[in-house]
Inverse folding.
């Protein structure tokens, strides 16, 4: 198997997991892609928790879990076409947030209440780098909500249906995703 | 002397296609060097990531970028490389160039645009000149574009309708969204002439191409049917069928060599595998889009051209222009309209296709403090661009904070499902000045070690005045339609996809780069046929004029080569 093919299929282990509620520790056990090897289990957990906070699940509307935002972000970070600077930025931001959280609380970010998370993230937002990181994380959530399901988010067009959005035809097939053309 | 080709064309966009088409059909051997890949209809999908979010049709800025220089509020200037910014001056490095991704809003220039200086007088700090040719000389080529590239529309009478040799467009207008009716009714009440916007899109099968299928994703997207009149679909595909064209994609032209007499003797390029090649031809054409054309000439020093090819008077790169203007938007909220109207407004895929040119010339003493008429512009009404991620991202801004959580989700729901948005694009002249130009950056190089283009962008206050005027007029129309959330503003930011100038044509070699035939003044066998030639840009998107002028120059090239070999 070519390195690229391996990297592109490496997210499949993740996709088979249940990501309901707070993501459990199993999430990172099967993420062998070298491009994201530097991401530890703790990194993925905190990113998932932030995603769920920024885009919560609701009865009538999909949240980060339903749109597979974590899988989508993983696919993006594992893709060799992705600028390594972006990978580094998302990684270092998650570490910064962990440190910032540890300064303010004795328990990990992932165990904070919704209100505590909101307060902490709003404080994190006042730091220029923190704000840039949150904008970035939110941006990939919105991509996961509204880009073609062929990229790993928006399963069965759940995001399009929620916002009554009409996708255009022809849609991109798997063998003509943006980095393959 | 034996030549590899009759003509070598650098680039394959709107400035190149007419030359390739005309000369190939006349029996001449044409080489086309295009730095990007060769996509066909089978490669174009409605994929926002490829098209807009990942720069799928433009170079990786880590490898090829530009340096931009802009003015600070205090009058000083700052510069930065585009990789470290949100700017991107590339516009489609693929066969057919950026014409693949245009919306195809096609307007001709008006007769007065060809002699702006004589018609409206000088403006301080603006390098306005008359063109060396008249509208009458260009008109047959505008007409040819309608028929060969394919322009759909319907002529109506309005105060600034330009003269035409054909009574009407060869193709009827594309299918219209019910929003067009709302605009027409509002304009009628206000005494304004709304008109069907001409489009470079086939409304019916013709010219060996399919008709538009109204996917709802046109501008920024490559066309999957061939209905859009890109240089590739409309001209290059047909030229290829003659067997006279040799098209080399992934061919980055690095240097145009000139001999001791100053004539071009070879073009050097690098292929996908980084191998160097050199080719020669009887005549050479550069059409790499304005910024890269100037950059290539400046990088191509030779014994008679120590400061760059055709640059002995320091004019290459000067007087770069964009499209000036304004923008606006408004929303027809569904709760204000009947069920029947809402159902119509929700229609998807068809075009708004409405323009207003009532203020192509403006007489308004209150605004301009003079009785003299001012050059105005064009208002185009279009759908809000459908890209959903871009639309959603704009909803995350809220009073300095990032909007997230349920408040964001509520706003998204309202934005996407509560009404139909209308967008305005207003076009006016981007006045050329001494501070708008392309030069070579002294520090930043591309991946081949060549200096990148440094783009200095100057905004003349007149652009903003006219932009505001048009934007406010468009807001009046939107309010008369019953729109809410109406926003309209002039913009000083250069639209990086609407760029021209840098090698203006003229009769005086000291003040222009090209002669009236678009041949470089002091290089007998080199022509420039992209938008670089434009001394002023008109108050419309440039593309139709670029196509028309390239057809005009193609006829000059054909004459030089000895006329058509075969019909």
């Amino acid at each position: 198997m070519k390195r690229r093919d391996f990297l592109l299929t490496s997210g499949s282990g993740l996709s088979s997991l249940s990501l309901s509620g707070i993501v459990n520790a199993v999430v990172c056990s099967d993420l062998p892609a070298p491009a994201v090897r530097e991401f530890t289990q703790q990194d993925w957990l905190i990113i998932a928790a932030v995603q769920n906070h920024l885009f919560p699940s609701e009865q009538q509307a999909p949240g980060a879990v339903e749109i597979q935002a974590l899988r989508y972000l993983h696919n993006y970070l594992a893709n060799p076409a992705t600028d390594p600077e972006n990978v580094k930025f998302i990684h270092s931001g998650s570490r910064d947030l962990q440190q910032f959280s540890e300064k303010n609380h004795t328990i990990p970010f992932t165990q904070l209440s919704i209100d505590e998370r909101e307060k902490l993230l709003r404080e994190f937002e006042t730091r220029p780098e923190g704000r840039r990181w949150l904008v970035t994380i939110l941006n990939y959530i919105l991509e996961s909500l509204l880009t073609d399901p062929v990229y790993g988010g928006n399963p069965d067009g759940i995001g399009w249906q929620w916002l009554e959005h009409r996708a255009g035809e022809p849609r991109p097939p798997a063998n003509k995703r943006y980095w393959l053309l | 002397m034996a030549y590899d080709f009759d003509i070598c064309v650098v680039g394959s966009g709107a400035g190149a296609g007419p030359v390739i088409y005309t000369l190939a059909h006349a029996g001449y051997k044409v080489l086309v060097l295009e730095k990007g890949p060769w996509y066909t209809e089978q490669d174009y999908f409605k994929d926002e990531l490829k098209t807009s979010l990942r720069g799928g049709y433009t170079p990786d800025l880590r490898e090829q970028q530009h340096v931009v220089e802009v003015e600070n509020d205090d009058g000083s200037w700052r510069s930065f490389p585009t990789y470290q910014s949100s700017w991107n001056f590339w516009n489609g490095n693929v066969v057919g160039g950026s014409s693949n991704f245009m919306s195809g809003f096609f307007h001709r220039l008006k007769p007065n645009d060809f002699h702006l200086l004589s018609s409206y007088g000088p403006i301080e700090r603006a390098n306005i000149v008359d063109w060396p040719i008249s509208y009458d000389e260009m008109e047959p080529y505008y007409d040819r574009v309608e028929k060969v590239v394919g322009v759909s529309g319907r002529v109506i009478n309005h105060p600034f309708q330009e003269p035409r040799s054909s009574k009407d467009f060869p193709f009827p207008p594309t299918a219209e969204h019910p929003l067009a009716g709302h605009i027409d009714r509002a304009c009628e009440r206000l005494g304004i002439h709304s008109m069907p916007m001409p489009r470079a899109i086939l409304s019916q099968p013709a010219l060996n191409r399919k008709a538009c299928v109204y996917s709802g994703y046109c501008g920024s997207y490559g066309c999957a049917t061939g209905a859009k009149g890109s240089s590739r679909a409309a001209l290059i595909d047909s030229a290829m069928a003659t067997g006279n064209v040799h098209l080399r994609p992934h061919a980055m032209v690095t240097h145009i060599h000139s001999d001791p007499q100053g004539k071009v003797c070879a073009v050097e390029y690098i292929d996908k595998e980084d191998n160097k090649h050199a080719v020669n031809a009887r005549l050479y054409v550069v059409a790499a889009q304005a910024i890269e054309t100037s950059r290539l000439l400046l990088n191509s020093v030779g014994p008679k051209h120590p400061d760059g090819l055709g640059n002995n008077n320091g004019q290459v790169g000067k007087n770069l222009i964009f499209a000036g203007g304004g923008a606006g938007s408004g929303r027809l909220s569904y709760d204000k309209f009947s069920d029947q109207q809402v159902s119509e407004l929700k229609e998807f895929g068809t075009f708004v296709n409405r323009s207003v040119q009532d203020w192509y010339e403006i007489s308004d003493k209150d605004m301009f403090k003079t009785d003299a008429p001012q050059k105005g512009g064009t208002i185009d009404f279009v759908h809000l661009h459908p890209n959903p991620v871009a639309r959603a991202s704009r909803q995350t801004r809220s009073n300095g904070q990032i909007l997230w959580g349920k408040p964001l989700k509520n706003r998204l729901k309202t934005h996407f499902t509560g009404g139909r948005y209308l967008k305005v694009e207003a076009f006016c002249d981007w006045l050329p000045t001494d501070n708008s130009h392309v030069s070579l950056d002294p520090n930043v190089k591309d991946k081949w070690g060549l200096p990148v283009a440094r783009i200095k962008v100057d905004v003349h206050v007149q652009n903003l005045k006219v932009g505001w005027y048009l934007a406010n007029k468009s807001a009046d129309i939107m309010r008369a339609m019953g729109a809410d959330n109406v926003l309209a503003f002039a913009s000083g930011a250069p639209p990086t996809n609407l760029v021209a100038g840098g090698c203006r044509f003229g009769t005086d070699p000291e003040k222009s780069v090209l002669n009236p035939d678009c041949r470089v003044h002091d290089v007998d066998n080199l022509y420039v046929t992209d938008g670089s030639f434009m001394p002023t840009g008109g108050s419309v998107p440039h593309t139709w004029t670029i196509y028309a002028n390239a057809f005009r120059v193609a006829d000059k090239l054909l004459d030089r080569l000895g006329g058509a070999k075969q019909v």
